[in-house]
Amino acid sequence: MVTVNGQEEDVAGQTVIDFLKKRNVPIENIVVERNGDIVHRAQFDKVKLESGDKVELISFVGGG
């Protein structure tokens, strides 16, 4: 299990990009933190989520 924004999810083994696509997350507006480290967009297709990981998804929203 992987903890995503405080909730356990069964997504271990997925790459970050696959995980985001399944959630329909707009990749250009998201920051992914895995175990306290930022995952750079260029690494989204290389980094696999592992059981025990803690992931935070931070999205940017424009407005005024």
From TrEMBL:
Entry-linked Pfam families: ThiS
CDD domains documented for this protein: Ubl_ThiS
Protein name stated in the entry: Thiamine biosynthesis protein ThiS
Species for this entry: Lentilactobacillus hilgardii (strain ATCC 8290 / DSM 20176 / CCUG 30140 / JCM 1155 / KCTC 3500 / NBRC 15886 / NCIMB 8040 / NRRL B-1843 / 9)
Organism lineage string: Bacteria, Bacillati, Bacillota, Bacilli, Lactobacillales
